[in-house]
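## retry 2 of 3
previous attempt timed out at serialization; input unchanged, resubmitting
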Amino acid sequence: MTKKSVVKKEVVTRINDLRVEGKGNQEIYAILSPEYFDRKEIAKIITATVTFERKEQYKVAQYALLVLIGITILFKVMFGFAFALALQSKVALITVLIFPALNIFFFVQVYRYEAAIYRLCGIFALIGLTRSFTNKIDAPDWTMAVDVIIALSMVALCFFLDSKLFPNFTPNNMKPDKNGDFRVE
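## retry succeeded, writing output
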C-alpha cells in the first residue's frame, strides 16, 4: 500500500465513517496512520474531530455559544451603522463590514466544530471583557452590564465546550511513543 499526503476533509470523512462502525480513536489511528505520511497530523485530526455523541450531548451549549456570537455580530453591525452615520460618509459604511468580521469568522468556525477556534474565541472574549472594564464611555450602565454578561457567558461556554468536545486536543503537546505512534484516546 502506498502512503499519501493528508487531506483533512478526506481524513475527517474516514474518521466519521469509522466511528459509525463503532471504532474508537486509537483503533482509527491504527487504521489510518499506515495510509498517510504524517502520523502526527492524523493524530491531530482525530483529536480535533468531535464525536457524534459529544455533539449531541453538548448541542444546547453549542447553540447558546452561537447565539451569543450572533448577538455580538448584531451589536457590532449596529455600532458600525451608528459610526457611519456619525461620520456621514459612504466610505464609513465599509466599517459596518469590518467591525464584525472577526466575530463572523468565529461564528462560522464554531458552527463547523473547529477544535482550535474555541480557545481562541474564549481568549478574544476575555480580551473584550477586560476592555469593557477599562473603557470609560458615556454609555448607560446597563449597556456595560449587558456587555459583561455576554462576554462572561462566551468565555465560560468557549472553554467549557473546548474541554468537553475536544478533551484530547493538545496539538502542541503530542509526543510519539517509542514506536513513533501517538496516543489519541
